[in-house]
Each structure stands twice: as structure tokens, then as C-alpha cells.
UniProtKB/TrEMBL annotation:
<dbReference type="GO" id="GO:0015031">
    <property type="term" value="P:protein transport"/>
</dbReference>
<keyword id="KW-0813">Transport</keyword>
<dbReference type="GO" id="GO:0042273">
    <property type="term" value="P:ribosomal large subunit biogenesis"/>
</dbReference>
<feature type="region of interest" description="Disordered">
    <location>
        <begin position="33"/>
        <end position="54"/>
    </location>
</feature>
<keyword id="KW-0653">Protein transport</keyword>
<comment type="function">
    <text>Required for 60S pre-ribosomal subunits export to the cytoplasm.</text>
</comment>
<dbReference type="GO" id="GO:0000055">
    <property type="term" value="P:ribosomal large subunit export from nucleus"/>
</dbReference>
<dbReference type="InterPro" id="IPR027312">
    <property type="entry name" value="Sda1"/>
</dbReference>
<feature type="domain" description="SDA1 C-terminal">
    <location>
        <begin position="43"/>
        <end position="86"/>
    </location>
</feature>
<feature type="compositionally biased region" description="Basic and acidic residues">
    <location>
        <begin position="33"/>
        <end position="51"/>
    </location>
</feature>
<comment type="similarity">
    <text>Belongs to the SDA1 family.</text>
</comment>
<dbReference type="GO" id="GO:0005730">
    <property type="term" value="C:nucleolus"/>
</dbReference>
<keyword id="KW-0539">Nucleus</keyword>
<protein>
    <recommendedName>
        <fullName>Protein SDA1</fullName>
    </recommendedName>
</protein>
<keyword id="KW-0690">Ribosome biogenesis</keyword>
<dbReference type="InterPro" id="IPR048292">
    <property type="entry name" value="SDA1_C"/>
</dbReference>
<dbReference type="Pfam" id="PF21638">
    <property type="entry name" value="SDA1_C"/>
</dbReference>
């Protein structure tokens, strides 16, 4: 039966040959990786600061944001867009 079906294990590649194929696949493509700040001199963004902040401090702010009426949300969005436009 073994002669008919020709069943055999696939030989495992050694580390060097695996590394060769990985490096060959990397050639000619853009570099991947996490975006890094300007030489480490830049601070953190407000979004990053909010992530580290104690949630109990943010709770009232988030509760008030959910309570806002549709009109208040419209006005806040308009003001934010106008401010963004001014800063650019």
C-alpha cells in the first residue's frame, strides 16, 4: 500500500532556510511597523492621555455627552469642524 500511495513525511526546513525565504519575501516592499514620533521629542496626544486617565474621572463627562440633545450635538459638530478648518 505504501508503494502505491507514496505517502511520506515532508522534511522540516532548518532555521537558516526558513530565514532565507522570509528575507526574500521582504525584499521590494514598503517597511511595516508602528509609527514612531519625531525622534522621541514629541509628547502624547490628548487621545493617548484619555486612555491612561482614571475612568471614574471621565464618567460624568461621558454621561453629559450622552444626555445632550440632537441640536446640541449638531452645534458641537459644527463648531468642531469650523475650529479644525481654522487650524489648517
Amino acid at each position: 500500500l505504501r508503494d502505491i500511495e507514496r505517502v511520506h513525511k515532508k522534511r522540516a526546513h532548518d532555521k537558516e532556510s526558513r530565514l532565507e525565504t522570509v528575507i526574500a519575501g521582504r525584499e521590494g516592499r514598503a517597511k511595516f511597523g508602528k509609527w514612531k514620533k519625531e525622534q522621541g521629542h514629541a509628547g502624547t496626544t490628548n487621545k493617548e492621555k484619555l486612555k491612561n486617565k482614571n475612568f471614574q474621572m471621565l464618567k460624568p463627562k461621558l454621561r453629559n455627552k450622552q444626555k445632550r440633545s440632537f441640536r446640541d450635538k449638531q452645534i458641537a459638530l459644527r463648531d468642531a469642524l469650523l475650529k479644525d478648518k481654522r487650524l489648517r
